[in-house]
Amino acid sequence: xxxxxxxxxxxxxGRICLPATLRESLSWKEGTPLKVEVLSSGQLLLHPLxxxxxLVEKDGVLVVRSRASTDLEEELERLRAERMHNLxxxxx
Length: 92
Known about the structure:
- The protein is built from 2 helices and 4 strands; from the N terminus they run H-E-E-E-E-H.
- By secondary structure, it is α+β, with helices and mostly antiparallel strands.
- The strands form 2 sheets. Strands 1-2 form a two-stranded antiparallel sheet.
- Strand 1 and strand 2 (44-48) form a beta hairpin.
- The mean pLDDT is 84.
């Protein structure tokens, strides 16, 4: 999912309503506990409790944390095998 922007307002009780499309895209349901972090830039970072945030602030800079979408060892082995196959085919 790419970065998206939505404008929301704070109501008289101090609440912010996140649009349904945004909540659905994040799989956030009613009652989902969210951790709120205030960054040094004044921005807010929301993420569900128990999950590591994708963006973290490190030395005043936002850094993306990510996980591999595939097993890296398996992918490296597949790429090596493909290269070896191509090299042996070229040498014939």
